[in-house]
Amino acid sequence: MTIFTPAERDYLRSHPLGRLATLQPSGTLQNNPVGFQLNDDDTIDVFGRAMAQSQKYQNVASHDRVAFVVDDLAATDPWTPRCLEIRGRAGHIRGEAAFGGDGHGIRIHPSRLLSFGINESGLTPTVRSVA
After folding, report:
1. What DSSP designation does 100 have?
2. Tens digits of per-residue pLDDT, 94-113?
3. Where in the sequence is the domain holding 66, given as residue range(s)?
4. Which of 18, 19, 65, 115 is spaced 20 to 30 A from 105 at the CA atom?
């Protein structure tokens, strides 16, 4: 099943940085900039330096629901923001030491997308659930 539109896929592949929000065991939220890669199956892998020791990695172990955002400004005049918010479930993975990391990572399986400024809808947000 294809989750992302071709424009969303191109957008994700052209941006090296996103923000991953996780829920800490205390109930507070943590939101960090992270490097990522889009996989052919439309999952997203997040890797980083000392990932296995990071709070976000530990958070995913106790609560697998996450939100991931990639956004930017296509222009400032006129003001033209673009955003792709991905909500879903995450789990731990092992792989190559991407992004200078330790071989540990987080894989996001999207379940809900919010997009604007990327597809033909312009700045009108579109929301899609993924089965």
Report:
1. G
2. 876 555 677 889 999 999 99
3. 6-121
4. 115
